[in-house]
């Protein structure tokens, strides 16, 4: 069988810190996989390994059965939005078009008509074409997230990786985004880092639990023992979101709802 992504014995260190340890993971083509784990558990690092942005100290990565350097263009990436300058003067269309440069960012680059056509087609597919001239800082959180998904799709990938795509959007945008991913999953393998356990149980077909090591890969319904191993806290806590963001460390009173 050819796997969309095949990680064999991957370890990643940042100096003294061991971020990933002996990870073996085979993701079937067509999967809709959620990756969960506590903050700092190595989820983003894992995505970056799959993308070739981080070279692991140990192990091999195959994408669609080939070494990563031969198939990297088959992967679309939707990064986590954390801080960005909302005044940066760039339009929605330009954000999507930049993906077509394949990492060769050049200022004052003239895009081919083909690139513009493709970027507009993807925006249209996601009902965003009417926003193409809008400066990205003037989008709502949900619109911005969908523009980033359009950007990931502009390279026409077979595999789409998303890092917490619903972290900064409201409930209605969250379901809109997951409905969109479900639709895209008819043709693509989708791998999502998320803290959203409700979405995992409604939309995903499999789950991976990561906390430096891979504790689980398979059924999306986790048993309490595995949850406790991965998060160090019971399952009902993580069902509400980030365990150690939302809840106080164990033994203390919860500070937030
Ligand atoms: N470039 C880096 N240099 C040094 N340490 C790093 C670097 N990137 C990540 N780390 C550390 O590696 C560990 C794993 O980080 P990573 O971002 O992969 O976790 P994560 O599971 O995605 O976390 P979160 O849920 O908070 O986004 C963390 O302890 C983090 O501080």
Describe the fold and architecture.
With 257 residues, the protein is an alpha/beta fold. The protein has one domain (3-221): P-loop containing nucleotide triphosphate hydrolases (Rossmann fold). The chain has ten helices and ten strands. The chain has helices spanning 43-50, 68-71, 92-99, 113-125, 141-153, 171-184, 197-203, 224-231, 235-238, 243-246, and strands at 3-14, 17-28, 32-36, 58-63, 66-67, 75-78, 159-163, 189-193, 206-211, 213-218. α3 packs parallel to α5 (141-153). The protein starts with a strand and ends in an 11-residue tail after the last helix. Residues 14, 17, 19, 37, 39-45 line the site of adenosine-5'-triphosphate.
**Biggest sheet: strand arrangement:** 6-7-8-3-9-10
Helix/strand class = alpha/beta
What is the CATH top level name?
Answer: Alpha Beta
How would the global form be characterised?
A: globular
Determine the CATH topology: Rossmann fold
Proportion of residues in extended strands: 15-25%
The biggest beta sheet is recorded as: 6 strands, mixed
Number of helices: 10
* Associated small molecules: adenosine-5'-triphosphate
Determine the fraction of residues in helical runs and give it as a percent range: 25-40%
Mean pLDDT: 85
The CATH superfamily title: P-loop containing nucleotide triphosphate hydrolases
- The overall strand count is 10
Low-confidence sequence ranges: 235-257
By CATH, the architecture is named 3-Layer(aba) Sandwich
Number of domains: 1
N-to-C span:
46 Å
